[in-house]
Write a structure and sequence with these properties.
192 residues, mainly alpha, Rna Polymerase Sigma Factor, Chain: A, Arc Repressor Mutant, subunit A, elongated
Amino acid sequence: MIFRKKNKIYTDGELMQQIVSGDQAAFGELYLRYKSRMYYYFYRMLGNSPELANDFLQELFMKLIEKPERYNQAYPFSTWLYSVANNMCKNEYRRREVRKEFQAEEALETKLDFVNDTLFEHEQLIEKVFQTLDQLGEEHRSAFLLRYREGFSIREIAEILELPEGTVKSRLFNAKKILAEKLKYLKDEVEF
């Protein structure tokens, strides 16, 4: 992403350098670039709670204001930001004493309401997929969102989640498999 200031284009990393120097306009630009994406990530990762998503969004950007020097220029800014956000979610799960173990068995036992031969509109279909996604464990949901919502590569997801690439691939495979099973009644509408 780019930002123009006095006819100069700034990358996210350059904006972070300016933030370290106290440039409020640079912070404002980074906030505008990432607030919607980060809100959506927190919203989906924290049980579709607008209040929690807003709280975590505010906390994330407060961390950025308070300690911008923690950003490592060796990594893309977006990868670093999602790593911080992912760690915040992990800490929240720990606070809730939610185990990070695979919860596929529980998810498979949950029955979905079957829809009669109703033709879904595109938005309704996507919402049904994400409702089903919410039934997955945190590990699978975060990998799925980072890949298919945010478009990160396997390597980038591995960096964000601090996992081997093979584990990320496995989680994505299992998430798609579970979603396909739970949404098989929509097979004419969804292609996994």
